[in-house]
């Protein structure tokens, strides 16, 4: 059995591939967008805009989860469900002057989007530069 486990993945490999949970803050109100703007003057704020019906968005968020390595003290990490909160998504784009895309990651400091990207390029953003 050891040979087959090595070739096809055994129990230990499956357990190590569990996705880690991130300190997501659900972004659901317009008031939160104003709070994020204010908080960005003190601490880095990150918004992940996710389309729950898009396979690419699901793949990208899983890749993002695997590479995310920051504590709640370093970054506030917001999760925005684009379908459930379209008005909030529109306000994020307007407030931070970023054209809507999905999936999309915005990094906010001092009330400005200092970095943003979409699709596979999300994982190329070096968040450590903004902490």
Short account of what is shown:
The chain has 131 residues and is of the alpha/beta class.
What does this structure look like?
- The protein is α/β, with parallel strands linked by helices and 131 residues long.
- The chain has one domain (22-130): Glutaredoxin (3-Layer(aba) Sandwich).
- 35% of the residues lie in helices and 23% in strands.
- The chain has five helices and five strands, in the order H-H-E-H-E-H-E-H-E-E.
- A five-stranded mixed β-sheet has the order 1-3-2-4-5, sandwiched between helices.
- It is globular, with a radius of gyration of 17 Å.
- The chain starts with a helix and ends in a 13-residue tail after the last strand.
- Mean pLDDT is 89; it is low at 3-7 and 11-17.
- Which CATH top level class fits? Alpha Beta
- Structural class, from helix and strand content? alpha/beta
If you average the pLDDT, what whole number results?
89
Q: Indicate how many domains the architecture comprises.
A: 1
CATH architecture: 3-Layer(aba) Sandwich
Alpha carbon gap, first and last residue: 47 Å
- What is the number of strand segments? 5
Give the biggest beta sheet: 5 strands, mixed
Poorly predicted regions: 3-7, 11-17
Instruction: Give helix % range.
Output: 25-40%
CATH-defined superfamily: Glutaredoxin
Q: Determine the CATH topology.
A: Glutaredoxin
Q: How would the global form be characterised?
A: globular
Estimated radius of gyration: 17 Å
């Amino acid at each position: 059995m050891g040979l087959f486990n090595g070739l096809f993945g055994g129990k230990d490999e499956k357990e190590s591939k569990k996705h880690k949970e991130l300190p997501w803050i659900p972004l659901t109100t317009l008031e939160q967008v104003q709070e994020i703007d204010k908080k960005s003057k003190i601490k880095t704020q990150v918004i992940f805009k996710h389309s729950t019906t898009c396979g690419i968005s699901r793949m990208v968020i899983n890749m993002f989860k695997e590479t995310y390595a920051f504590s709640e003290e370093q970054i506030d990490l917001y999760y925005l469900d684009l379908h459930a909160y379209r008005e909030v998504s529109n306000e994020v784009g307007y407030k931070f002057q970023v054209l809507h895309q999905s999936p999309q990651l915005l990094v906010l400091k001092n009330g400005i989007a200092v970095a943003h990207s979409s699709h596979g390029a999300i994982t190329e953003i070096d968040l450590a530069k903004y902490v």
